Amino acid sequence: MKYLTVALFCFILASSVPGVMGKTIFQDNFSKDTGLWDFGPSWAIKDGVLMHTIEESWVFATPKNWNKSAINYTIELKAKKTGGAEGFGIFFGITQENPLKSGNDRNTLYQWVIGGWTNTRAQLARFVKGVRTDLVEIQQGAVLKLDEWHKLGIEMGNEQVRCYFDDEKVADVAQDPATIDGLFALGAYGPAAFDDVVVYFGTYGNPMSVKPMECLTATWGNLKSSD
Q: What is the mean pLDDT of residues 164-170?
């Protein structure tokens, strides 16, 4: 009976706890404006993508009604440069107390800039209470071609943060406890387009990172060894 009880508990846990079964927590393919985003007048959902249409200092599109318990998640999306001299960025690990709105409003977060500095550099940086630390200079995405889609991925874990550009891991840094919070934002410094945004619990490309039977096997083994 002890084995059966623990096995049943493990299955229920694996089926319901966020992060165990790779639950999707946010998704938008921009087939229509569903009201999921908070953004300003220089953004628009058109022709099945989220577009930023002019060149200006950083402006952001952030999800509305974000699940504040969302940590240890992975973001996947597509993005492309559509004009101008500058590129775009992904901002994540943003403190809930001070979400991004526009300009240089950065408190505590990660900033992955792609095609920045007049389309010459890509870089991952971290801000903690406004203090910036440059983490990784990234070759991939330093120079962007117009209208060329790229697949981007960000894996936020308790211990590591990993970034992927066209399925290639381009950054792997130690997590900072201050930036483990969940909110993310799409940022643009010039004309850009974004599509197929999905956020899920699990590792990059593997949303079902822990299977019920793996949990069951581990629990069964631990119980047997403790008898």
A: 98
pTM of the full predicted structure? 0.80
Say if CB 79 and CB 193 are below 8 A apart: yes
Q: Degrees (nearest 5) of the Cα angle 174, 178, 183? A: 100
Query: Each residue of 7-17: pLDDT tens digit?
Result: 333 333 333 34
- Taking only the tens place, the pLDDT of each residue in 119-151 is 999 999 998 888 899 999 999 999 999 999 999
Residue 191 near residue 82, CB atoms below 8 Å: yes
Q: Tell me the three-class secondary structure of 144-165, residue by residue.
A: CCECCCEEEEEEECCCEEEEEE
Torsion angle, CA of 185/98/161/214, rounded to 10 degrees?
-90
Find, among 65, 79, 70, the residue nearest to 199 by Cα.
70
CA distances from 81 to 44, 162, 185 (A): 15, 22, 17
Count of helices and strands (H, E) across the chain:
3, 15
Between 183 and 49, the higher pLDDT residue = 49
The pLDDT assigned to 68 comes to 73
Domain ranges of the chain: 1-21+210-227, 24-206
Q: How confident is the model at residue 94 (pLDDT cuts 50, 70, 90)?
A: confident
Coil, helix or strand at residue 128:
strand
Q: Which fold has domain 24-206?
A: Jelly Rolls (2.60.120)
